[in-house]
Structure formats: structure tokens, C-alpha cells
Amino acid sequence: MKRDRLAVINDILKTISSYKNKIKPTPLLRYSNLSSQGFSVYISELLEKNLIEEVFVKKRKHYSLTKKGFKFIEKYIAIRGFIEDFGL
Amino acid sequence: MKGELIRFGAIEKAEPAFILAKEKFVSGTSFWIELFFALMVVILCFLIYKKTKEIYDLTSHKGIKYFRQAFLFFGVAFLSRFLLMLSIILNDGPLFGKGLFQLGFFIFIYSGLMAALLLVYSTIWNKFKDPDRYFYWINLIALSIALVDTIFNPRENFFFIITLLLLISTIISFSSRESNKTLKTYVIYIFLFLAWFSSILANFFVRFSTLSGIILYVISALLFLLIYTKVNKSLSTK
Question: pTM for the complete prediction?
Fold first, then answer.
């Protein structure tokens, strides 16, 4: 079943979280099940909305969740339920 | 008093009946009941708007955006409606002259229309490629109708036509729903529009009995309370 935008965001954030909150772009792309173009679009959005941030470990770029990103994961089920309850 | 038609901009006093109604409204408990329920609805609307802020900030979900804005407009509409009624009743006509009254009426019609249109749009926005563009069209429609109603006071009041259209569009939206989970929500929305429509009719255009007007107000308030409870329940951490 095709994932909607929120489901994709949730999957990306959960993947980052499951890697002790630090993951390099390439494995994240692999686990996200997105095209590289789609992945770039989502990552840009997540960075812009401050759900994730770039951190550098030994000069290598990694992605990490922000507080807001953790909050998203925490609230995801409730958000989903709300959207379904009101047909939004 | 029954069936008496009162039009903004040209309030036909039919003095004895109008003055009687005014005295009854101001001196009786009905004023305080109306004030209580008006404030209750306004507060509930703003609470819904506030309660959904966090999830909108997290997701930027357009459906949530339009849903929130609908209730913001509902709050403004109910507040302006109450103030308009108060000004008519206390002054035998427009408060502070026709100009400000017309402005108040315009705000009332515009915000009421925006609220209803946005509530329906929040359920169908994802069927459009560029939802924000249609949002501007919604604004334009509401502005145009509010302007025409305020300035020209047409005999065939567009407000009633659009309210009926909203009922129809809610029913159409309901029939194309993807799950039965939203069934209750659509039923609430339909009753809400009916209550809104009836209460406008009762308060501003046709003189129903005071009791009927209050009953409609109570029903509106209870429907908003139901929606707020549903929002609260949906967003409570599971």
C-alpha cells in the first residue's frame, strides 16, 4: 500500500531513531524505500521543519532527530487517529 | 411576532412586537442564557484551534490547517453575531450608526461562510493538485457573498443559498468518504450547519419565539462541545 506523506516522514524519523539517533545519508536512503530524488525532497523538508538536523561525526555527515522529531514520533499515532476521525 | 421579517439596513420595526421582544430579551433570563452559550461556543472554538496547534506545527498537514482555520472563523462568527444582536436589541437598530453596523454584519457573514466552507474543504482538499490555490478561491467566494449581502441586501439572500450548498456539499463529501470511521463526524457537521442556518434565520430574519432561538443556540453549543470532546479524545496520548 502506498505510503502517504506523514507515513513516509514517520518511517524516516523512526529509522534515524533506531540507529541510536545518528545515521549517514546513504543507509537512510536505502531504508527509506524512496527514490534518491524523493529522498532529497523529504530530507530538505525535514531539515526545514526542524524535525532532523545534520551532525558531523569524524567529518562525516549524519542525520539526527531534534526534539521536535522525537515529538513527531511520539504523537504520530494520535495525529493519525485525529486525521482519520475527522476525515482530513 | 411570529413570521415577522426583519432585514438589516432597513429594519422594519413593527414597533410593538419588536419592542416587546427587546424588553423580553434584555430584561429576561434569555439574554444571560444567550450570552452564556455564545461565550461557550466562542471559547470552545478557540480551544479547538489551540488544541490542534501542536499537531499542525509538527506535520504542516493541510487538512489540519483548514480544520483549525474553520473553527477560528466559527469563533469570530459567533462572537460577531452576538455583538450584532446585542446592538440591535439594545438600540432599536444599528449601534454606532449604519457604517460600523454594516462592517460588523460583513464580518459576521464572511467569517460564517469561511468557517463552513473550510470545514467542508478540510475533508476534500487532497482531491486537488494545488489545494492552497483553491483556498484563495474560497476566500474570494466568501468575500463576494458577504459584500453583496452587506451592500445590496438582496431579496434572494445569497447567505441562505450558500448555506444550503454547504449542506449539499457536506452530503456529497460524506458519500465519497473512504471509511465509516468518519460517519459520526459528517453527521455532526450536517447538524452543525443546520443549527447554524436555523439560528441565523431565528435571530436575524424571521422572528421565532425566544424559546426556539435559545433551543437552537443550545443545540449549536452542544454540537461544538461534542466536536471539542472528540478533538480532545483523538489527541490524548495513546
Answer: 0.82
Residue at B21: amino acid letter: A
For A83, the closest of B54, B63, B173 (CB atoms) is B63
**Greatest Cα-to-Cα distance within chain A, rounded to the nearest angstrom:** 47
Mutation for A interface: B55, B118, B190, most A CBs within 10 A: B55
Please write the tens of the pLDDT for every residue from B31-80: 777 778 888 989 999 999 999 999 999 999 999 999 999 999 999 988 88
Chain A hits for B49, CB-CB cut-off 8 Å, are: none
Residue A71 is placed in which grid cell? 515529538
Spatial distance between the Cα atoms of A52 and A55, rounded to a whole number of angstroms: 10
Report how many Cβ contacts below 8 Å link chain A to chain B. 68
- On chain B, the residues whose CB falls within 8 A of the CB of A80 are none
Whether residue A82 and residue B185 make contact (CB cut-off 8 A), yes or no, is no
**Distance, CA of A36 to chain centre:** 15
* Interchain contact, A86 vs B179, CB within 8 Å: no
Give the ipTM.
Answer: 0.89
Q: Which residue of A has its CA nearest to B186?
A: A86
DSSP states of B176-230 as a string? Answer: T-S-GGGHHHHHHHHHHHHHHHHHHIIIIIB---HHHHHHHHHHHHHHHHHHHHH
DSSP string, A14-68: HHHHHTTT-B-HHHHHHHHT--HHHHHHHHHHHHHTTSEEEEEETTEEEEEE-HH
Question: Cβ contacts of residue A45 below 8 Å, gap of 6+?
Answer: A9
B226: which residues sit within 8 A by CB, 6+ positions away? B188
pLDDT digits (tens, 9 = 90+) for A7-41: 999 999 999 999 999 999 999 999 998 999 999 99
- Chain B residues in contact with A75 by the CB 8 A cut-off are 54-55, 58, 237
